[in-house]
Structures are given as structure tokens and as C-alpha cells.
Amino acid sequence: MRIITVSREFGSGGRELGKRLSDVLNFDYYDNEIITKVAHNIGMDPDYVANNLDDHGWRDVPVTFGSSLMTSGFIYSTQVNALLEQKKVIEQIAALGKDCVIVGRNADVILAEYHPFNIFVCATSEAKLRRCIERAPEGENLTERELLRKMRDIDKKRLQTHAILTGAPWGQRESYHLIVNTTDWDLKSLSKAVGDFALSYFGRKA
Hints:
Elements: E1 3-8, H1 14-25, E2 28-30, H2 32-42, H3 46-55, H4 78-95, E3 100-103, H5 107-110, E4 117-122, H6 125-134, H7 144-166, E5 178-181, H8 187-205
Helix pairs in contact: 1-8, 2-3, 2-4, 6-7
């Protein structure tokens, strides 16, 4: 079984790269599917669960999955219950024993025992801003300054979440096998190169 995890800066194209990578390698792909499964398991609306997981209102809780989270008083909050269920779902995906790409959700650390190939996707602020403008949902009319603030806020929350849930750094080079800067790259072409690199990694580990 080969697992690829994709962590990414907001606006870097990491999600698209992950999907293209799964297509190139013919691996299963998991992203929003994880949220859907979590929502089903805890009997809540997927959008509500996604908002709870991304709200980060629990980020000051000084605990990790590896220690006191499961026995803390916070276990009764919707957010922590969703986090624990998300962890369980990711572990269940790995237990299927199938090659897969998982985007985000701290899968790189949660599945460390499976020795996944961990990718971190980044880009320049200008490239991320351009992508956010091009991919903005209908009706969203944020200024460039507002978009830059949104990118910084989301990445800051991802950093805090990763540290709280795993005790490991987010976005630091020693935590990943490959750091991919998507600036000025066509993601379709880039995904093929990353796929070749990943296969070489797994071949070396075999």
C-alpha cells in the first residue's frame, strides 16, 4: 500500500495537484469525502461539520491526539468530536490497504506508522493571490488586501491546528519528503513529475 499526503498553503493549488496526482497514478483520492463520511458517522450536516472543523475555536486547547484529548473535558464539544471522528475515518481509509492520496486533515502525522510520502505545496503570495482571484466562487468579491488577509489567516490556523493535534511542525521542510512550489507551473505537467518522484520514493522503500 502506498499513501501520499498533501499539505498545502491556501491558494497554492495543493488540492488540484493532489487530485491530478491521484489520476496520474490511479490512486484513490480523499478530500471532501472525509468530511462527508465524518458527517454521516456523527449524524450532522456536512457543511456544518466542515465549518466546525475549520473554525478552529478549540485551538487554545493544550492537548494532542496522542495524550489527553480523548479524556479531556473538551470531548463533549461538537468540534472535538468531529476531530476525533475525522481521525478515525482517516485511519479507516489507511486500513483499507489501497493506494491513495489524502489532501490535508493532518493525515501526514495521523498515518505516520504507514510511512506515507508527505508533500507540502506552496507558492509565492502573488501566485496564490492570482489563483484565488481566478478560482473565487460566484458572488465573492474580496479585494486583494482582503484575499491576502484570508490566506494568512487560514494558513495560520492550519499551523495552529497541526501543532495542537500532532505536536509536529506544519510547513517546515524537515516534516516532508517533497516541497513543491507551484509558482509558474502548469499543474497538469507538474503532477506527472511529482508522480514520478513519488513512485521512485516508494520503489526505494520497497
